Amino acid sequence: MGKKFFIFFVLLSCFEVVDSAASTTQKDIYNAIISGYTKEVRPVSTTNSVLNIGVMGYLLAINDFDEVAGTLETVLVLGLQWTDEALTWSVANYNNVAYIIIPQSKIWAPELFNVKSADTFVPIGSGSFKVSVMYNGDVQMMPGGIMKIKCSPDVAKFPFDVQTCSLEILPWMYMSNDIVLSATASELDFTYFELNGEWTVMASGIKAVLKNGYPFLTISITLKRLPLYHIVNTLIPVYFLGFLNPLVFIMPCDSGERSGFTLTMLLSYTVFMMVINASLPQTSSPMAILSFVTFGALVFSGFITILNNFQLRMYHRDENILVPNWLVKLSRTLACVSKRKVNPGITAIEEHDETSGSGFNKDEDTVTWKRVVDVLDIFYLKADFAASTVQKDIYNAIISGYTKEVHPMSTSGDALNISISGYLIAINNFDEVSGTLEIVVVLSMQWVDEALVWDLASNSYMGAITIPQSKIWAPELFNVKAADSFEAIGGGNFKVTVAYNGYVYMSPGGIMKVKCTPDVTKFPFDVQNCYMEILPWMYTANDIVLSATASQLDLTYYEANGEWTVMETRLKSERKGDYFAFVVSLKMKRIPLYHIVNTVIPMYFLGFLNPLVFILPCDCGERSGYTLTMLLSYTVFMMVINAALPQTSNPMAALSFVTFGALLFNIDDYNSVSGVWSLVAAPNIVWKDDILTWTPSSYGGIQSLVVNQTKIWRPNLYNVIVAEQFRPISNDHFRATIFNEEQYIGNRQVF
């Protein structure tokens, strides 16, 4: 037993010795390769050498895809590999140790930035990862983490949509003649990927690209939504409601449930619209087809509600009131269409038999109000299901062979005339500081497309249909004074109404932010003039002519603003060079009451109170506090006024000069009544310290050294007539400079 214990002890001691030797060897390797190493420069033998960095990627998880914010959050790890010629050693000299793992911060490593980051713009990994260094200089690093990237969602086919997002990785400040990024794999590695319950990864890709002389590495991820949740909770209920909606017309009018039925259906569609819109981005390019479907169903449900109200009103009319002849004829016609047998010979009204279960009298030849309602119910029920079929036929007929990529030329070859008017809905905000005006504007446009015509008689006399704008040619109008995004107004996601004679009506619009140079000279009694310039992009005056059908914006739907009132609007079409421009001008006047009450009156009231300091007794002890309070008040008012005005010198608000003058006047008052002064001083302190000596030739000829003053002795000097806190003049944040003997007249001096 003792012998076995001895052997175990010997083996354990050997393991400890080997482990200690290995640890010592790694330390020796580390000290050897780091000694004299410069981590701040690119590790190449010559300046002209190009450093190649191989990159691969591991996708660990998809945390979230926010369609509303347009961001994708993933957990991604990059595998990087490069060769550092300064980090080599002989394996034979270090106990056959082939590699060591050291902190990334100890050697040079590429700072890779994701230029499509949606939150922080910092290097991937930020120097907190370890690196593996091989004996031949090969360095491997695997930085990564949670990455949130911008990704423009395409929700046109929601919930059957496919999203493609990409990261663009760049070695910051290095051009392609310094560093080359090369993909060591064509796609991401999914070995450690955790499945997501909402999205599945269809494809991924890694490729190196060159952009303007800089090496980029693009990592693309294609995601497909798992639609079952939305099918069960959104699609099936919406279509089921669409089937139930027309069934209101088979309910008896005297059941007392018809109005409740239609209103409940209308409310249901409203709720589904809110649910769908809450999960989709508020963008018009592109917009989900499901949103259009739900909106159309909502309008359709509202139309049924209106029809039902008229039906109930007719049903409950006094039977002694004669049915108009046109309605009698209409009901007979519709009854024939609906396969109902009606004798067209009699139009008189007889008393209704209360025992009759239907809307007809026992005399089948009599047309009553209830009989009219019964016939219309049957017609509406059938028409609701048949109207969509006619519209589909018209749509297929006019779209077949239609080319939406070219603008519709007239047979005469003249320029296409587009008539435009506008509606001002609201003034959201006027930011004087940034010089931007945010308004809600809707444009009403009309033009003729001779390719979109059909015969009325052949299509059940359907005079017009409404289709997506993206299915036909429509002018791309750009606001060249835009202050945020430069894109076509409406973005191609509005509906258009096409009449049988080829007339097309479109009303794009939305929230528009335009640049507007503010004139705040008379603030808060200022008047601002802003305007938009709308151009049909790429179309000259020979192609398209814009004509204003009104001289000013229509304010029918305008919602009053609490800060600005509209004085005047103008619409005009003018030719600028080779193009036609549609100019929308807006003249606004500020409503000054808020600023008068909160700024102007208090400031002038302070101006009246300020000189009253001189009627206070000098020995009352209140004069300094009084003037300081007044000074602080003027400072606050200057900050309030300046925060609301642009930082421009031409023009500058007169109120700013007035407040500044009052501030100077108050400072003069304060100096007159106060005996306290403040100054900023920097005393130069010099003394000799015999301990702080060195020989410059032994330290590379260094003549002076800057250190933190907390590292050496220094005197604590006090101002004995201080008016505030009694403490040393200096603090621990200052630095001291130590000079050698030759440089400073034979003494070691400290400042």
Jot down its keywords.
alpha+beta; Acetylcholine Binding Protein, Chain: A; seven-stranded mixed beta sheet; 5 domains
Distance between the termini: 75 Å
CATH structural architecture of the largest domain: Distorted Sandwich
Count helical runs: 9
- Global outline: extended
**CATH class call of the largest domain:** Mainly Beta
Radius of gyration of CA atoms, rounded to a whole number: 41 Å
Overview of the structural elements:
The protein has 751 residues and is α+β, with helices and mostly antiparallel strands. It folds into five domains: 33-226, Acetylcholine Binding Protein, Chain: A; 247-398, no CATH class; 416-590, Acetylcholine Binding Protein, Chain: A, CATH 2.70.170.10; 593-673; 678-751, no CATH class. Helix content is 27%, strand content 27%. The chain has helices at 2-34, 228-244, 258-278, 289-315, 325-337, 369-399, 593-609, 623-643, 654-673, and strands at residues 51-66, 71-83, 99-103, 112-114, 130-134, 138-141, 144-150, 162-171, 179-183, 199-211, 214-225, 416-431, 436-448, 464-468, 477-479, 495-499, 503-506, 509-515, 527-536, 544-548, 564-576, 579-590, 687-688, 704-708, 735-739, 749-750. Helix 3 runs antiparallel to helix 4 (289-315).
